[in-house]
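User: I'm curious whether this sequence folds into something compact or stays loose and floppy. Could you predict its structure so I can see for myself?
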Amino acid sequence: MASIEQKWTAEELAGDSVSKKDLAAFLQESGSNEFLLKHKLNGKLPNVVKTTKKPHLISAYTDLFATQQFRSADEASATSIKQDKPIAAVESKPDSDKPEEIKYDKVVLKKGTGDRCPAKGDRVSVFYTGMLEDGTVFDDNTEHKGRKPPTPLVFKVGTGRVIRGWDECLMTMVRGEKVKLTIKPEWAYGQRGNEAGGIPPNATLTFTVQLVDIA
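Assistant: Here's the prediction. I'll summarize afterward.
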């Protein structure tokens, strides 16, 4: 392609009149495939717009005119080009495809009802007792507080509001199910532990967990 004139001034680029979509579309239409790969702007336009921040697009726009790496007429579409993977990355792919090791063990103490398990983002209500490996109870919401009945813990499951072992296990349970849940440190509080909660570093935790409700 012949030399291209700059479409926007620096002031226009910095303002709101030029959108990320405008910039990304111009760069894909004007930049060579080598240029697009260099700046990671190849692929479908909606994906590029979604994953790329505007400062990066502005930087690429400036670089395009500085390097004159314009697209030639015989180049493939920007949506079809892909970055070649290093040999090492290709060779290691089978290992990366291995399923992640489950870091908890669940033993059903009481069967629940129905077949609906919570999905990510569902609001669940849970009764639980948490213990260290020596049997020390570090948390419990099943005890009566004076005349008040126990109150279940309510949160959105699968959103990181609790330790991962809880999130993963709860999404396999049904309403009313009660389990003994043993969680390895990697899916509990890890190397740091939780000093405020009385949990030491690298602690394997055991919980009695009952899924009271799913909303």
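Summary: The two ends are 58 Å apart (CA to CA). The mean pLDDT is 88.
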